[in-house]
Amino acid sequence: MFEEVEKIKKAYFEDAKKVKTSDDVEKLRIKYLGRKGAVSSAFTMMEEVPNDKKPMLGKALNQLKTELENHFATLQQEFKASLNKRETIDLTLPGRKPNTGRKHPIAQVEDEIKTIFKGLGFVVEDGPEIENDFYNFEALNIPKSHPARDMQDTLYINDDIVLRTHTSPVQIRVMEKKQPPVRMIAPGRVYRRDTPDATHSPFFHQVEGLVVDKDISFADLKGVIEAFAHRMFGKDIKVRFRPSFFPFTEPSAEYDFNCVFCRGQGCRVCKQTGWIEISGAGMVHPNVFRAVGYDPEIYSGYAFGMGIDRIAMLKFDIDGIRTFFENDIRFLTQF
Ligand code: FA5
Predict the structure, then answer these.
(1) How far apart are CA 278 and CA 97, in angstroms?
(2) Mean confidence (pLDDT) of the chain
């Protein structure tokens, strides 16, 4: 009888060693600890033994039951723990890709513009976005009450302080600090109360260019702009200069690049003209030189102010400028 108890115990421990799946765990429980399992059946032996043996057999059976139950509880725990562990390092799960940031398309184009102009011998300068009336207007030959102030709808902070309407004030700040020769560009943000449409935004980006030296001519300006256009868009791009007016340049011009959307046929983006206006430009007005203490009899120079967002539209085939500023992640991740 006691041998039977030992046999059950031995068999249990052998079976327990073989457990591999949760099904095996359940089978082990049913086989030994279930209602009709080996331990329950062993208790029926009590009926067969003489009364004087009953206490000892009862004790042995209770011990067997406790030992197996304890062992089984531990086994069940270990099995659960190892199962959980296996789940947390399931190598078959697809990886989770972290979202990485990237440069905004306008910043990418700005970088490219800087690289091209550095290659043409220009240095990169910077100026404040909140400007004095003097730098944004006065020193650029636009006195107060001059009708030319209406050319750019200005956002005033107070009578004297404005959000700069163009990057041209950086010309003045650089010329105040340096003597010629000057060969610089200044990219940055500008602000205007313009009505938004496909090519106009109240907040946009310009890159100012300024070259001052002896014997600088309009032909130098055209040469540099064409070299820039070819490096930025390839040799196929067409550039056209039109006469224009700016108080700080004389003569003044505007130049356009081919509209890439309609290949010059005329469309909504280019307002049926086949061209997209990129920049204002011209030869620096003598009054501007006088405002910074340069002698206009000795020096001449050219300046330009290009719209970076317009260049980015042509570069990336974007037919609405506002798309750049809506910060739609589905748009931004394409660049
Ligand atoms: C100016 O801002 C002059 N400061 C440019 C200049 C510099 C002329 C130096 C002469 C010498 P204009 O207002 O035309 O000029 O703007 C220049 C360029 O900025 C435009 O050709 C266009 O490409 C871009 N631009 C102007 N307004 C907007 C706008 N609301 N949204 C997007 N781009 C604009």
Answers:
(1) 39
(2) 92
* pTM, rounded to two decimals: 0.73
The pLDDT of residue 147 is above 90: no
Higher pLDDT, 167 or 276: 167
- The highest-level CATH class for domain 105-332 is alpha beta
CB 276 within 8 A of CB 314: yes
d(CA 291, CA 173): 11
Cα of 158 vs centre of ligand 1, distance in Å, is: 23
Token duo for residue 231: 């490096």
By CB neighbour count within 10 A (0-12 exposed, 13-18 middle, 19+ buried), where does 104 fall?
Answer: middle
Annotate 41-83 with three-state secondary structure. Answer: HHHHHHHCCCHHHHHHHHHHHHHHHHHHHHHHHHHHHHHHHHH
Q: Would you list the domain boundaries of the chain?
A: 2-84, 105-332
Q: Could you tell me which of 200, 280, 269, 284 has the C-alpha nearest to residue 242?
A: 280
Helix axes 54-88, 2-18, angle to 10 degrees: 0
Q: Are 295 and 213 in contact, with CB atoms under 8 Å apart? A: no
The pLDDT value given to residue 144: 87
| Distance in angstroms (rounded) separating the CA atoms of residues 268 and 262 | 9
CA torsion through residues 237, 243, 249, 250, sign: positive
Do the Cβ atoms of 1 and 56 come closer than 8 Å? Answer: no
- Please enumerate in sequence order all residues whose Cβ is within 8 A of that of 49, keeping only pairs 6 or more positions apart, or say none: 1, 57
Q: To the nearest 5 percent, what fractions of the chain are helix, strand and coil?
A: 45, 20, 35
Query: Ligand 1: which residues within 6 Å by Cβ?
Result: 152, 166, 168, 192, 194, 200-201, 204, 206, 246, 249, 277-282, 303-305, 307, 309-310, 321
Give the rounded percent of residues in the chain with a pLDDT score beyond 70.
98
Distance between CA atoms of residues 222 and 253, nearest Å: 11
Query: What per-residue confidence (pLDDT) applies to 148?
Result: 73
